[in-house]
Amino acid sequence: MATIRFKALEASMSRVPRIVKAPSTKISEYYGVNVFDKKVMAEYMSKDIYKQVMQTIEDGKTIDRKITNSVASAMKAWAMEKQVTHYTHRFQPLTGTTAEKHDAFFEPINDNDVIERFDGSQLAQQEPDASRLPNGGIRNTFEARGYTAWDPSSPAFIIGNTMCIPTIYISYTGEALDYKTPLLKALNSVDQAAVDVCGYFDKNVNKVSATLGWEQEYFLVDKALFAARPDLVMTGRTVFGHSPAKGQELDDHYFGSIPDRAHAYMVELEIECMKLGIPLKTRHNEVAPNQYEFAPIFEEANLAVDHNQLLMDIMDKIARKHNLRVLLHEKPFATVNGSGKHNNWSLSTNTGINLLSPGKTPKSNMQFLTFLINTIKAVHDNERLLRASMATAGNEHRLGANEAPPAIISVFIGRELTNMLNELVSKVNDNKPLTAEEKTELKLNIGKIPEILLDNTDRNRTSPFAFTGNKFEFRAIGSSANCSAAMVVINSIVAKQLIQFKKDVDAQIKKGIKKDEAILRILKKYTISSKAIRFEGNGYGDEWIVEAEKRGLSHLKTTPLAIAEMGSKQTLDLYDSLGVMTNRETIARREIAYDLYTNLIRIESRIVGDIAQNHILPTALRYQNHLIKNVQGLKDILDAKEFKDASSVQLDMIKDISAHIKTIKETVGEMINERKRINMLESPKEKALQYCDIVKPMFDTIRYSVDKLELMVDDEIWPLPKYRELLFNH
Ligand code: ADP
Ligand code: MG
Q: Which atom of ligand 1 is nearest to the CA of 470?
């Protein structure tokens, strides 16, 4: 290892891992201490106000202006006891990160005096001039005002000396400019639609919440080595780097013991998360070296999304304290696994029932089958939009590229449930009611679902959307994503499907068909019409691509192709009919996605060009000169025949290096020209497509030569930390 790189690493490695002591060995004693949760609210608010706030949260409405003052003063009192001096509205703009603007609690009252102030209007609304945040053409710069408004369903919390208030973010004209606004609307839609359908089975259900349990994968790398890689610093991924002698083939990292430095980091992170009420439960090593995963206990979806955004923030902050850096990029390193964020999703009722968990009685299992089949049908009818929901520049490296899951959406339910659906299709007759015996038999079999599933929760790790016993696991989502993108889609499409189901069943009932029979007939119909989306085989195999095409499933290989679906007629109608987003809002989102993609690839392209020309070429030339000197020296001291023998290898190396230098120089030049040309194009879509199809492939050509040079050039002078250094130092 080159001396300079070694010294950098040695410095950070020599520090003893800093193990932070938890406030108590009992997590219960400090869980949620920094959260303005229900318990704290009850303590700091009058009974009446508390009741009103709870009611607002229940109803999913915005808070009544009349009570915000009382809530604000309770928040202020609580926060000031905890040495808090500032507050901020925290929102999730379409950049994918979390944004905040801190304001102090103080306010001048006359020339010299100030008082601590935080009142209802400050709690309810802030007005960040966030004209640089993406808006997709919704906001003109002359009307740059955006508003943030408190989301009472996600509790305020404290970080450092700042109280953070989760908010939505909308334009002056009321359009959503963030991830949270449509999410809350989609959750509301699925709530109403699911409650209506539950009415067939259980009249006590009056609220259905979507639940989300994410699993966050990430890499840890040494801070000093990270800093020496401009590509990691600027793009979060390595654009160059030859694969190391050893990758992940020995599987010796997966579920192995967690290295000390990483462990010390996780301990501190978990303490912070517990204080913030993020129920982190699991941590383990992942497949690739230096890759790890955190998973919490699932929560109501809106809260789970906020917690994931918060976690990603804190992960970064705490890693730096441990001389580590967190990589949340989907593919930081070629040749080893990338990182995803599985979204486990289900629906649960106010009566404590998980609607995707088989129940104890035939009736509750009918309800389970209803939600299962409607979800499958929703995915079938909207697979293109689901694909679009996870389409980003980073995730493009995972989906269908060097690594599965594929860019084809399919649903896995396992053999037992497949048999159950087949039975439903064969037994139920569209024209004549089931006889008493047939009904008993079918009910008996439906009643057996829980037992069957108990022993047979098949796992298919290659499915992008898999049923895992009591929830669906959406696996294709990228590690850096805001979960809302996928959660808006899944909850909206299921809401729409459930509304349709209710209509279809009611139409049958109107014709005089009994309720149970009507439900069975519609479920049969959906099972047949959505069959194409169900796939139990190997989703990573080439045969699946052929088979999926035969079935008429889409295969949107690149991000720009998938983004187009965000604004299709079907998508526009979906969001409009549910009131999740207006057409204008939906289209704006698509435009932002194109722009974001273009910007990210453009930045990568600049970094590729910069490192290649300013770091790699000079190094290669230096080494080549070294070889040339060697050859000249040999010529001076050897006779012609001896010289020919002794210099042939060096001469070949010199020629090889020249060839690579030429490729790099020419391709970088060509890439810059293409960039200039594409930047002049008008259409965001066209730009994104061309960055994808023309600029991005050039990275590979340049990389091939750079990585070859890495193997040839003297290690001592190679400027970039190598894969073996980044991946195997703990
Ligand atoms: P695994 O999939 O590794 O076997 P689990 O089944 O325990 O592990 O759950 C994985 C993730 O799924 C966890 O984050 C968990 O909180 C989440 N999960 C479990 N049940 C639900 C549910 N009903 N809704 C949403 N997420 C859930
Ligand atoms: Mg899982």
A: 23
